[in-house]
Amino acid sequence: MFIDASRPDGAGTSNASSPGRSTGASVTGEGAGMLWSLSVSRVVIHFVSVRIECSDRRHDARGGRRVAPSPAVFIGASPDPHRAPPCSKAASPDLPIDRNHMKVRAITVGIPVPPGTQSRLVSRAGTIAFAIREALDRAGIESQTVRLALPPVTDRFTNSGASIARDVLDEAAFLDESSRLSDFGHVSFGTIDTLGTPDAIWTPLLDLVPEIISTTSLISVTATVATRKPSGLAEINIGACRSAGSAVSRIAHGGNGGFGNFRFAALANCGPNIPFFPAAYHDGGDTPAVGIGLQCADLVVDAFTHASSLEDARSRLVGSLTEAVNKVAGIVRSALDRLGGIRFNGVDFSPAPLPGDGTSIGGAFERLGLPAFGGHGTVFVASFLTECLQEVATTTGMTGMTPGGRTRPFAFSGLMMPVLEDSVLAHRASSGHIGIERMLLASAVCGLGLDTVPLSGDTSAGTLGAIILDMATLAVRLDKPLSARLFPVPGTCAGDAVSWDTPYFSPSVAMGTLEATATGVLGSATRHVARLDPFRPG
């Protein structure tokens, strides 16, 4: 499957087909059929493409809401999966970004949104983001995106009346447009808290998520399905896990080759003020706040490539990351001091990867000597890298508290393993070295959970909900922030090639899953509460 999708920062849509790839007839409209060619003696699915082209944003005849344009979509399976080469031999793809030094991936401004003040606050947030970006530019540090984060959705919409759908969709459309005018590339609509909110509130809100995604182009939204408290009380909303799985499935089959799931995730034990999307949401305070997310996978690759021992690898990485964090934090603090009245949340130094040999976390693992990411030894390297990041948090003072009351690095500040955003991970998925289970296992010793994981299009909503439930269980037992951003790709089976025409995603294959829709007692369970040891992982 080849999908020409909007770049992840929401900057626009490309309709150009990739050089050297087959293209089919061009049609205009909201959807199109799939053409299949089967031989009798051996089933072969030939590469046949259907291209969907749309004009600029349109008005929805139902109520004037603006509908995001659909990117051109190519659907089909090819005997050549266009797999990424192994890290040791790969050349970085020719991408329109410089990959030779640490950058800022995200400048995220969190704002309160009292009724009637959205326009003024969005404009103010744009001014804040511009000032920070300008300060970083003067210091020679490139910033990739500026982002806006709002308080939890369930804090802003507290009625369960018939008007809730209209109110939510109208605010999403307004924020989508006003944020675009203020040059934001991403907007977090906030998280839907399914734990501290009555079912009558969160259920219709979560049900609206696919429509929020389909009628906007910048808006991201999340659902918080599990958390742990300092007392040791851990709660998982099992029903919300199922509902989140249903939302993922509906988004996937709603068009754009399932790319809408780039803007939806299920969260577990994630506090506010994380700079990275889609997990970001403002803490609800009255003061605007700023968080920074680094793009520094290249520092990990460099440290591990030149290390002569594990201790040398640790020393190199901790040193380079500490220097980067302190430099960026100093620049941002100075800029905010000049503006006044804005809180600095901190720097999230998760080594966010990008496709390419020099910016791949999977590649960094293999530079340290691991034969292939996903094989035995992967869990150790993940744990080792996490130890290094924890040391950076201590040396820089970039720490925070988990919902369970444990001191840990600020925000995520953990090992990111987004399959589609990392060329080596995408390749190892293609070669069968990693799957959902291996990614969950690695999450037990590092962070972030399941991110941009391509799944077969026939993955059921029940199975998606069960995957989210497993992620949530790890998060509360280990008192760590995890999330699940899953990508079922319509029209694919396990092992089919998937590829998006964006330099920010790598080609891979759709992963298979075992059918896991729960029945019986588990299938009817709604919530689970466990009392674990306070301040200690379970």
β-strand number: 21
What is the CATH domain class?
Alpha Beta
Helix content: 25-40%
Overall structural domain count: 1
CATH topology type:
Anaerobic Ribonucleotide-triphosphate Reductase Large Chain
Global outline: globular
**Computed Rg:** 22 Å
List the uncertain runs: 2-100
The overall pLDDT average reads 82
Helix count from the secondary structure assignment: 14
Structural class: alpha/beta
Largest sheet: 11 strands, mixed
* CATH architecture heading: Alpha-Beta Barrel
Instruction: Note the gap between the termini.
Output: 41 Å
What portion of residues belong to β-strands?
Answer: 15-25%
Sum up the structure in keywords.
4-stranded mixed sheet, disordered N terminus, Anaerobic Ribonucleotide-triphosphate Reductase Large Chain, 538 residues, alpha/beta, 14 helices, 11-stranded mixed sheet, 21 strands, 33% helix
Briefly say what this structure is:
Helix content is 33%, strand content 19%. The protein is of the alpha/beta class and 538 residues long. The protein has one domain: Anaerobic Ribonucleotide-triphosphate Reductase Large Chain (Alpha-Beta Barrel).
What can you see in these coordinates?
The chain is an alpha/beta fold and 538 residues long. The protein has one domain: Anaerobic Ribonucleotide-triphosphate Reductase Large Chain, CATH 3.20.70. The chain has 14 helices and 21 strands. The strands form 5 sheets. Strands 7, 8, 9, 10, 11, 12, 13, 14, 17, 18 and 21 form an 11-stranded mixed beta sheet that branches. A 4-stranded mixed beta sheet has the order 6-1-19-20. Strand 4 and strand 5 form a beta hairpin. Helix 8 crosses helix 10. It starts with a strand and ends in a 7-residue tail after the last strand.
